Amino acid sequence: MIAKGKKNFLKILAVTLVSLLLVLVVLFFIVTSSGFITGVVLPAVSSSIDMRIQAEKVDLSLFSSHLSVRNIRIGSGKKALAEAEKLDLYFSLGSLLSGDIVFRDVLLDKAVITIAQDTNGKWTYESPETKPDDDAEPAADKEKSQPTEMEKVLVDLENIQVTNSSFVLATGNDGKTASVMEFRDLNISLPQFKNNEIATLNFKSRVSVKSDSGITVERGDWNFTLSAAFDEYLLPYKLTLASNLDKLDGIINGVKINNSNLELEIRAEGDKKSITVEKFCLRQKENTFIKTNVELDSRIDFHPFKVKGKFKVAPLSAEISSIICQFIRQVNPGRVGVSWISDFEYSENNFAGT
C-alpha cells in the first residue's frame, strides 16, 4: 500500500510539473507575441511615460535575443516625435539587466524624427499633460546644490545603422514656426563602439534651412566622419572630426551663397580630467576664395567645467556672422564682416576675453 501510494504521488507530481511547464511555455509565447506586446505592453509603457508608443507588429525572441518592430510611432500629438518603418536589433538580456548597454546589428530604416511645436506651444517630445514648471528651483539654490556623482556606463555596440531617414527641427514662438532645419536622405553608420576604444561614426545627409529671419539654405550636402574614444563615464579623451558641408545654395540676410563650401576639422586629446583641443579650424570657401577662417586651440577641464584658450578669426564672412548672431542672440547684425584674435576663458559662472 505504501509503495502504491508513493507511485501515485510521483505520478501526480510528474503530471503537475508537466502541466506547469506547459502553462509556462504557453504564457511565454503569449507574453512575447506581437499581439500581447502591441496590445498590452506598449499601452502600459505609454501610460507610464505619458508618451504614446504604437507599432503595427513586434517580434521578440528571447532565445535568439532579437527584436524586430514594424511601423513604430512615438508621440502623443498630431506630429509624432519619431516614426520608423523598420527597427531590427539583437541584444544581450543579461547585460541589460545588469545595467550595461549591449546591442548589435541595429538597423533603423526610413525613420522620421521631428522636434517641433504645436499651436499650443507643446514640443513633440513633451507629454500633453506637461505643465510649465512654476516651482522651478531658484538660481541661487541651484548654485548651492552639490553635483551628483558620476556613474560608470559600460557600452558595447556593434554594427549600428540608420538608413533612408530624416530629421526635422522646427522652432518658433506662440505656435508659429520661425525656422525649419531639415536633414533628408540621412544615413549614419557606426561599426563599433566600446568604452576606451576608438569608434568611428560616418554621417551623410542633404540639408535645407528656411527661416523668417532672412536665412534660407535651399540645398547642401553634409558629410562628416567622427572618430572618438570615451571612458567608462562616457567622457571623451580622444576626438577627430572631419566635416564637409558642400554645394550650399541660398540667401543669408541678402547675401547670396552659390555653391559654397564649409569645412570643419577638429583634433583633440586628453584624459579623465581634461581634454586639449589641438586643432579647430572652420573654413568657408566659395569656389577657391576663402571667405571665413576660424582657428582655435583650447583646454577643457571637466570637473569643475572650464574652457581656456585662444582663437583667431580672420576673416569671418557677413553670412556666417549673421547666422551666429541669429541663433545665439536672436539679433540680425546685417552685412558685417569680422576679424578678431583673442584669448578667452569660460566657466559655469564666468566668461572673460582679451
Question: What's the layout of helices and strands?
Answer:
Layout: H1 2-31, H2 34-49, E1 53-61, E2 66-74, E3 82-91, H3 93-97, E4 101-115, H4 139-144, E5 155-173, E6 176-194, E7 199-211, E8 215-230, E9 236-252, E10 255-270, E11 274-286, E12 289-301, E13 306-316, H5 318-328, E14 338-347, E15 350-353
Parallel strand pairs: 4-5
Antiparallel strand pairs: 1-2, 2-3, 3-4, 5-6, 6-7, 7-8, 8-9, 9-10, 10-11, 11-12, 12-13, 13-14, 14-15
Question: How would you sum up this structure, described in words?
Answer:
Helix content is 19%, strand content 55%. It contains five helices and 15 strands. It has helices at 2-31, 34-49, 93-97, 139-144, 318-328; strands at residues 53-61, 66-74, 82-91, 101-115, 155-173, 176-194, 199-211, 215-230, 236-252, 255-270, 274-286, 289-301, 306-316, 338-347, 350-353. The protein has a 15-stranded mixed sheet. Strand 11 and strand 12 form a beta hairpin. The radius of gyration is 27 Å and the shape is globular. The relative contact order is 0.06. The model is unreliable at 330-336 (pLDDT under 50).
In short:
This protein is α+β, with helices and mostly antiparallel strands and 354 residues long.
Cα distance spanning the termini? 102 Å
Compute the CA-based radius of gyration. Answer: 27 Å
Mean pLDDT across residues: 80
Written as H for each helix and E for each strand, in order along the chain, the element string is: HHEEEHEHEEEEEEEEEHEE
Tell me the fraction of residues in β-strands, as a range: over 45%
The main β sheet shows up as: 15 strands, mixed
- Overall spatial form: globular
Oligomerization state: single chain
Number of helices: 5
Major sheet: arrangement of strands = 1-2-3-4-5-6-7-8-9-10-11-12-13-14-15
Share of helical residues? 10-25%
Kindly name the structural category: alpha+beta
Number of beta-strand segments: 15
Unreliable residue stretches: 330-336
